[in-house]
UniProtKB/TrEMBL annotation:
CDD domains in the cross-refs: FACL_FadD13-like
Every AMP-dependent synthetase/ligase domain range: 15-363
PROSITE patterns xref list: AMP_BINDING
Provenance organism: Solirubrobacter phytolaccae
One MF annotation (Gene Ontology) recorded for this entry: ligase activity, forming carbon-sulfur bonds
Keywords: Ligase
The keyword Magnesium is assigned to this record: no
Protein name per UniProt: Long-chain fatty acid--CoA ligase
Keyword Ligase: yes
């Protein structure tokens, strides 16, 4: 597939009248999404967008917004999924980094859009405005984006500055091939998208489209509605981060739900409790399927398909549940020390990856690209090991990234927000294990002499600046933080103390 729109066209070749996107009572066929993609491509062209230009989409889960992805690709432009959970300043910085001054957005984010300088801004859900915009279109010929670039994905950095992950059509074709070869697919799939389409849930749509399947879009994360849709739509595939699976297992209706249509229930984006995974295998069924990847190597670095959750006797393979599965067939995975030496079985080091799944690099950031690809391998920043059966175990992270509820939180960004409070002298932010969130953000602060404040005040202060997802769940106020002889805060000691060690 040389373009994202090829997945749509492949599905349409199996029947233009087949359902493609479902949202609420509305069903849109493959043919209708194809027609819309041509109109969007023409309207973008009339607005001055050219092949290789960047076009952002800012929306919660929405069928029309996702359909517009294929109009962007039809023109040969580059899709930039913009996370609506981000603060305005972060999204403005991402759009500037991406050289993206064209944005399609949902009216729920109108206030944010007004604060971002844009050349083209089109509201997707004001029908009159959207239809009028579509009517002013150029005739276009389908085009592939220059240099194979299909997506620019924003990711934070440990400095709090965003980076742009360049994903090519080849990267996504590799991901799609791995998905189709590694997990069960029988007949036309029906995929339920509750998790954000700006993240993992979005790229998982491409293999579904290639098989002519339908995508059921949930605009809001409602677990009761999720369970109802699994039954009513006879859902075959879905994806949730572990924190939502934990909530699902505690839902009043989970034991009454008919899960018999499910072939594959993917989980990933955060560590999952082995005990809760074993529970899911009983409550939901033998359909749980792990995937491990990152924005730079999307989704399929390693895989644990449903069958591999069990041993040869059919019993739950408890130890294997703690792994991230086996490296994917088209991906090389190794464990490397700091000097670039590949380590042996059972030895711990950084997980490194190479192959056609790995990104083209960071947009306009050759230094970060070189750092991530030293010694000829992509460096994931995760520490792990491979066992004698070839299963990959992730044991720690090299960077101070916290994965909470499937979202990446960078400790430096939280620390920067805390340090803006007039009472804070210094602070340390870490991630601690959490049964619900995978990890939770916690902080320790040292106050300025003679100044007082409260924990609720500090948490609220951070929430106002970077949002509730990144704000600490708990803050401890210490008289003095532990430091090295050169004055660096010793996070290892902070972690040990908070864990009660």
């Amino acid at each position: 597939m040389s373009s994202l729109v090829d997945y749509l066209d492949k599905g349409a070749s199996l029947g233009r009248d087949a359902p493609c996107l479902v949202e609420g009572a509305q069903t849109v066929s493959y043919g209708e999404v194809q027609d819309l993609s041509w109109s969007v491509a023409g309207a973008l062209s009339a607005a001055g967008v050219r092949p290789g230009d960047k076009v952002g989409i800012l929306s919660a889960n929405n069928a029309r917004a996702f359909a517009c992805v294929f109009g962007i690709a039809r023109l040969g432009a580059v899709w930039c999924p913009i996370n609506p959970r981000n603060e305005t300043a972060e999204n403005r910085a991402l759009l500037e980094l991406f050289d993206c001054d064209c944005l399609l957005y949902h009216s729920a984010y109108e206030a944010m859009v007004r604060e971002i300088p844009l050349r083209v801004a089109v509201c997707l859900d004001r029908d009159d405005e959207f239809v009028d915009w579509l009517s002013q279109r150029d005739p276009v010929e389908p085009s592939d984006p220059p240099e194979d670039l299909a997506m620019l994905v924003g990711t934070g950095g440990t400095t709090g500055l965003p980076k742009g992950v360049m994903l090519t059509a080849r990267n996504l074709e590799t991901m799609t091939a791995l998905t189709l070869m590694g997990y069960p697919f029988a007949g036309r799939p029906a995929y339920l998208a509750l998790a954000p389409l700006t993240h993992a849930a979005g790229v998982l749509c491409f293999p579904v489209l290639a098989l002519g399947g339908r995508i059921v879009v949930m605009p809001k994360p409602d677990l009761g509605a999720f369970l109802e849709l699994i039954e009513r739509e006879r859902i075959t595939h879905t994806f949730l981060p572990p924190t939502l699976i934990y909530m699902l297992l505690g839902h009043a209706r989970v034991h009454e739900t008919d899960f018999s249509s499910l072939q594959c229930f993917w989980y990933g984006a955060a560590p999952m409790s082995v005990a809760r995974l074993a529970e899911a295998l009983v409550v939901i069924g033998p359909v749980m399927a792990q995937l491990f990847g990152q924005s730079e190597a999307p989704m399929m670095v390693s895989m644990l398909p449903p069958a591999e959750h069990f041993d040869s006797s059919g019993n739950v393979a408890t130890r294997r549940l703690a792994s991230a599965g086996r490296p994917s067939p088209l991906v090389q995975v190794a464990i490397m020390d700091a000097d670039g030496h590949v380590l042996g079985t059972g030895e711990r080091g950084e997980i490194v990856v190479r192959g056609s799944l790995v990104m083209a690099g960071y947009y306009k950031d050759p230094e970060a690209t070189a750092q991530a690809s030293r010694f000829g391998w992509h460096h994931t920043g995760d520490v792990g090991y491979l066992d004698d059966e070839g299963y990959l175990f992730i044991v720690d992270r090299l960077k101070d990234m916290i994965i909470t509820g499937g979202f990446n939180v960078y400790s430096a960004e939280v620390e920067q927000a805390l340090m803006q409070h007039p009472a804070v002298r210094d602070c340390a932010v870490i991630g601690l294990p959490d049964e619900k969130w995978g990890e939770r953000v916690e902080a320790v602060v040292e106050l300025k002499p003679g100044v007082e404040t409260s924990v609720p005040e500090l948490i609220g202060f951070v929430k106002e600046r970077i949002g509730s997802v990144k704000a600490p769940k708990a803050i401890a106020i210490w008289t003095e933080l532990p430091r090295s002889r050169v004055g660096k805060v010793l996070k290892t000691e902070v972690r040990t103390s908070l864990l009660g060690g």
